[in-house]
Design a protein that fits this description.
By secondary structure, the protein is mainly α. 58% of the residues lie in helices and 6% in strands.
């Protein structure tokens, strides 16, 4: 039993909070389920359909929050590993831990926001990793100088 629980946890850790497309999809489905729940509560108050829509909205919101929490947890783990390297003082303060978690959760939430239309004025280095991250009519390209050895992916008009 404990082995199957450990395998399930390992599976979740390998999937949650690693893919911005999945995080974005989970946020969009949570928002859609919330809207459907609100509509069902308004149109069909007190029915089983309204209750099921509410449960679905809560579950999908929990899934998105799990993605963001896993992203933040992974960032905290990396920060702790860097903090205990030889030549550094051991550990991170409680205040530092909270700052790392809040920053990483914010970044995870921002990473899961949908990109409907990317504009060249809003383009920045590291904005995308593949064409799906950009809006309609834009593609992900490395805009760094040739032979600079840098990678600066941005959404540019196709």
């Amino acid at each position: 039993m404990l082995q199957s629980i450990a395998q399930f946890i390992d599976h979740l850790q390998s999937k949650l909070g690693r893919c911005s497309t999945c995080m974005r999809l989970s946020l969009l489905t949570a928002l859609a389920a919330g809207a459907a729940s609100g509509l069902a509560g308004r149109v069909l108050p007190g029915t089983l359909a309204a209750s099921l829509a509410g449960v679905a909205a809560i579950g999908l919101t929990a899934l998105w929050l799990a993605h963001v929490a896993a992203f933040a947890g992974r960032a905290l783990r990396r920060a702790r590993q860097r903090a205990v390297r030889p030549g550094t003082t051991a550990g991170i303060s409680r205040r530092g831990t909270l700052a790392i978690i809040a920053r990483a959760a914010g970044i995870g939430a921002i990473a899961s926001m949908p990109v409907f239309l990317a504009a060249p004025a809003l383009a920045f280095c590291g904005q995308c990793s593949k064409d799906d991250d950009c809006g309609v009519g834009y593609v992900c390209r490395n805009t760094a100088a040739v032979n600079s050895g840098k990678v600066c992916n941005e959404c540019v008009a196709s």
